[in-house]
Amino acid sequence: MQNIIVAFAKQTDAQNFKSILMRGGFEIAYVCQTGAQVLTAMENLGSGVVICGSRLGDMLCTELSEDMSAYFKMLLVASPAKADELGLHAYENIVYLPTPLKKDDLYSTLTMMIEGVQLRRKKIKDKRRFRSSEDQKVIDSAKAILMERHNMTEPEAHKYLQKCSMDSGTSLLETAEMVLSLK
Length: 183
Known about the structure:
It contains 8 helices and 5 strands, in the order E-H-E-H-E-H-E-H-E-H-H-H-H. It is an alpha/beta fold. The chain folds into 2 domains: 4-128, Rossmann fold (3-Layer(aba) Sandwich); 133-181, Orthogonal Bundle (Arc Repressor Mutant, subunit A). Helix 6 (133-150) packs across helix 7. The longest helix is centred in the middle third of the chain and has 27 residues, at 103-129. The N and C termini lie far apart (42 Å).
């Protein structure tokens, strides 16, 4: 699935990029004009690519990149002069395309970025699938505390830990450690 967010300060620029990308076969999830809108869209999507200019309605692209999750990459479309001002070499999650822009360069770069984001997400998910025995002991201890104190069954305690983990945006292990710290 392509999770693409198009973000430009001017609505006309955003719509132009959206139509160019749609003609190239890409699906656009959100069109935004401010960094706050982009951050909200990112929370809803979970992973993807943000295509933007150097400045949004409320922040610079570099400020936005600092707030982005590891599951997102940014494709900055700007003039070489604007890119030099921003000092992009310090940002790992920004890919830069200079203007004037060729459609083929845009399409190939975007395709590469989407594949990279999907691969990164898959690697992290696969890594999480296998827990060490120490990590499993921590989770089991937290479940035991929940079962004892709140008269839960083991599946109920596990489901409770999962829900708390998802609600707080932390891993299951971190949530279990929090339960243990409240012991």
